[in-house]
Amino acid sequence: MTEPDDPGPVLPTVRFDDFSRIDVRVGTVVRAEPYPEARKPAVKLWIDFGPSVGERRSSAQITRHYEPETLIGRQVAAVVNFPPRQIGKFVSEVLVLGFPDGEGEVVLVAPTLPVPNGGRLY
Asked: For residue 84, what are the domain limits?
């Protein structure tokens, strides 16, 4: 396995209160479509985060490793309390999380076992 480009030094220390303000939840992809109109290749996702958060949308640059049809039913982790961002004609409401592979392409963050939608990272 190759190492990605050096991401740099560890960021400055933050207090737990700072970390706890970022709301990372798990959800299940219920719909996924190619998004060829995006500046960089992307997939439009509709993700069910359970009753407390509901369904939210995201535009994710994950086309290297994932086809839209293979994402349906998959659980993913996302930040649900960032403000929405306009990505072309699509509003992205959550930030789906991933790590770079050896070539800098996104590999999604997900639980290794099924968990209830809406569960919060701790």
From this structure: 16-103
CATH of the domain at 92: 2.40.50.140
In a domain, 118, yes or no: no
Query: Does residue 7 belong to any structural domain of this protein?
Result: no
Task: Specify if 121 maps to a domain.
Answer: no
CA angle in degrees (0–180, nearest 5) for 3-5-7: 105
Give burial (CB, 10 Å; 0-12/13-18/19+) of 18: exposed
Nearest residue to 108 via CA among 18, 2, 17, 32: 32
Tell me the pLDDT of the chain averaged across its residues: 94
> pLDDT tens-digit profile of 22-58?
999 999 999 999 999 888 999 999 999 999 999 999 9
What's the structural domain count of the chain?
A: 1
Which amino acid type is present at position 87? I
The answer to whether residue 25 is domain-embedded is: yes
CA distances from 117 to 7, 23, 38, 46, 53 (A): 31, 14, 28, 13, 9
**Length reported for the chain:** 122
